Amino acid sequence: MELKCAEITNFRRLDGVKLEFGDKETIFVGPNNSGKTSATSVFRCFLGRRAFNIYDFPLARLAEIDAFNPDGLDLDTDDLPVLPFIQLDLWFSLEAESVEFARVVSLLSELDEETATVGIGCTLSVIDPAVLWRDYTQMYPANENGERKLTLSEFLALEGHLKRYFSVEYASLMEGDDGVIRHPISPSEGNRTLHSLLRVDFVDAQRNIQDDEENSRGSKLSAAFAAFYKANLRQLEAGDEAVRIVEENNRKLTEHYSESFDELMGILKNLGVPSANERELEIRSILGAEEALKGTTDLFYKDKGSALSLPEAYNGLGFKNLVLMAIQMRDFQMQWANTEEERPLCHVIFVEEPEVHLHAQVQQTFVSNMWAILNDLSEQEGIAPQLVVTTHSSHILNSVDFGKVRYFRRCRRADEDPDTYPLLSISEVHNLGDFRPTEPDDQDEEGEMSANDALNFLKRYMTLTHCDLMFADAAILIEGTVERLLLPAMIRQIEPNLSRAYLTILEVGGAYAHVFAELMRFLHIPYLVVTDIDAVKAPEGGGRPKACRADDENAVTSNTVLKAFFDGKKSIVDLVGVTPEEQIQEDGNRFVTFQRPQAIAHGGASLLLHGRTLEEAFIYENLSAFGVGGSLFDLSLPNGANEIGQFVFDLVRRSTFKKTEFALGILAGGEEAWATPAYIAEGLSWLAQRLEVKNEEAPGENGA
Length: 704
Hints:
By secondary structure, this protein is α/β, with parallel strands linked by helices. The protein contains 25 helices and 26 strands. The radius of gyration is 32 Å and the shape is globular.
C-alpha cells in the first residue's frame, strides 16, 4: 500500500495545496519559509503526538476567527457563522489481491480487478461554536466600546483552550462528479482506521548531536544505539544472567553487543565515513553490574592499527549525523515491521534537512545510502517505507529524478492586490513530474528542439549544474564566462541590494534561454535574461550568414533567444526598436535585455556605437579605460566611430583574444575603473524593483 496524495487546507502557509508522493522517495525543496516544514508538521499533528496550536491557522484565518461574532443571534437555534478549520485529506492506492480489505472496506471509493483507492479525511474544527462564544464572552466581557481584553484567537491560544473547543473529525472520501464526497465516520473509528492505514515517523532537523563537551555516556549517538537495542534486538534472557556476565567479565558483554549489532555495523561500514583504512565502530560495555539491565552502552571508535579506542565525542559531527539518521530510520522501520497486531499498511518516514554537517560527496549519496539500510530489511520482510526528504541541498536534489521533486513557492492569495498587499503570505506546491514543455511551432527552425529533447536537456542541465534554482528568489540567465565573472561586481555597482537576495545565475549561452522559459513559468520564478544581439549578415553572392558589426546595414540576429522572445523579430533595426514595455514579459516575471546603440564621448566628439557582444559593449562604454594609458588596457584606439567599431569588432574576434583573461583583467583593475554596460544596468534595475515587491514576507507569518 502506498500514500499517493495529501491535500492540506488552512495549515500555516498551506492554504489549499496538493502533495503527491512517490512510491520510494519524494523530495521537498524551496526557499526558506516556503512551507516545507509545515507540510511535515501537519502529519505530526494529525498522526503524531504534537498538539495543534491556534497559530497553526494561517494569519488570514486568525483574522476570520477574531471576526466571529454571533451577537444578536439565538445561540441555541440560529445557524451560526462558520469558523475556520484545518484539514488533511489522504489518498492511498493498494493492490487488491494483497490487502486485508476488512481493515479498509469502509473507505473504499473505487475498486477494480487490480487496484483500489482509499481516502480518509481529517478535520480539526470547532465542537460547538455556541459554547465557545458563551465561555469567551463570560470570561472576557466587552467594555463600553465593545472591546474585549483578549481577541477570540488569543483566548484560544490560552493553554488547553484549543483542545477544549476544537476536535478532530474523520470522513471517508470518494471522488464525485462535482468534487470529493465526504461520509462522516465516528472519531474512534476514524482514528483507529487512520492509524491502521498509515504510520509516520520523523527524523527531525534539530538532532542535537553537537555534544563534544559532554561526557560520552550522555551523548545522543550512544543513546540512539542503546534505544535501538532495547526496542528491536533480543534482550538478555534473565537479569541474573546479565549480572553474572558483567561481573564475570565486561569483555563478554562487549562481545554480546558486537554480535547483536553485527548486521547493522556491516551496513554502516558501507557509508564511507570514516574510511575503511582508518577506524571501525565498536560498542563497548563499561557498566557496573547494577546498571546492566538498563541496556546502556557507550560508542567508541576503534583504531585498527593499534589497540587504542576513542570515545564518541572524538569523531566529526558529520559522521555522527549520518549514523544517527541511519539508526533512527532503521529503528522506525523495524518497529513497523515488528508490529504484531494490525500493522499499519503504509509507512512514511520524513527526514528534515539531512545535509547538516555532511560534506558535498556524502550529501550526493545520502538517499542511496539510506535505501541501502532500509532495503536490507525490506528484502527480508517484503516491506519498504516511503521516504520524504525536505532539504536545502542542491547535492541531494542532484541525486534524484526530476519527477520526484516537489517545489514549494511563496505566493500571494488570489484575492490580494499586490499594490495594496505586497506580502507573500501563503505557498503553493509544484510537482516537477507534471512539467512538460510544449512542442515548438517550427522544429525546423535552427536552434529549436522537440518537447522531449527540451525536457531531457533541462533534466541533464539541472542535475549537472544548477539545482540551486529551486531555492532561489530569482534567476539571471547569462551567455557565458565573462558575464558570470563580472556579474557580481556589476550587481554591487548598480543594485547592491540584490546582493542580499538569493539569486541563481544560469550560464545557458545564447541558444538555450528560451528552453528554460517554460520551466521558469511552471515554477513562477522571476528571471532576467542577459543576452547578446549577435549580428550576422549573409555574404554577397549568398551563403551561410557570418558575424558582422551590429550597425551593419541589413544585419540580423542569430540569437535564438531573441527571436523566440520577440515574436520572431530578426533584423537588428527591429530589435533596437523594441520598447521597455516589450522587454517585460510573462506577466512581469521576465525581462530580456541586450545591446543597444550608445552615445559615447571620445576625442571631443559624441560617437554612436553599438556592441554586438558583451565584450564589445563593455569596451565601447569604457573607452577611456581602454585607450593609451588607460586604467584597464593600453590600446591604440582610432578616433572615428566607424574606425573604432571596426577595430573593436576585429579585436574581439581574434583567436588571441581570451575572454577569461579579459574579464579577470577588468576585475583586477578595480570596480571604480569601469562602468557596467547600460543594457545590463537596465536589467539589474528591473530585477531589483521586481524583487522589492515579490520577496517581502509577512511579519511573523507562520510556517516554514
